Structures are given as C-alpha cells and as structure tokens.
Amino acid sequence: MTTTTLHRVSALSGGAQAVVAAARELREAKQFLRAGHLVRGVQRHERAKRELYQATHALTGSGPTPTESGGAPLLDSFQAFLVALQDFRGAYDRRRADTSDGHATRALIEAEKKVIGELGRLEHVLN
Question: What is the CATH number of the domain that holds 117?
Fold first, then answer.
C-alpha cells in the first residue's frame, strides 16, 4: 500500500478503516486459498469472513462515514462499499442460520465478490 493510500484511508473513520482492513484480509485470504494452500487457506478465509462480519456489525452499529475532506468521489465509493457490506452481512446471517442451504451459500459467495469488487473501486478512489 502506498503512502498516498495510507494518507487517504485516514479520511475514513476508525470503524470504516477496520471494515476496509477486514475486506482486504478477505481478498488476501481468497488469493491465498486460490494459490493452493487448502487447509490454511480455508481456515484463513473463514476467519476473514467472520472478522469482516464483526467489523461490519460494529460499523453499522455506530454509523461512521468518511470525513468530508475525502470529497464526493470518496463518499460515493464508500456508499457503494456500504451497500456491498450490508449484502454480505445478510448473506452471512442466512448462511449461518442454515449451513445446508445451497442458495444461502451461493448468496454469500456473490456477496464476497461484490465486497471485494467495491473494495477495489474504493481503493482506486483512495489512490
């Protein structure tokens, strides 16, 4: 991560920074798993999902947003990121309620993809 990105991430509140960090870990865990590290990859991926869920829960409970110094593009990107996080949280809850539900599993996979995609867009704005 560049110095510029680190500086721009500071335009986000503490709760928002925690969610961004958790989403980055989810993305890295998926990459680690795809690289063929099956046992540790699955463990890391499950832990990353749980951490993102917890960070999302804390964020939606407190409602922090990017500071005004971030500008409109940052606010728009963060808003889309929040929508993706809400989808993830709902899918995670459904999957946790019924682990045998294939539709819930598929919804969680799609929600993960959406969070990672919106994270990329947010990082692009932060750069």
Answer: 1.20.120
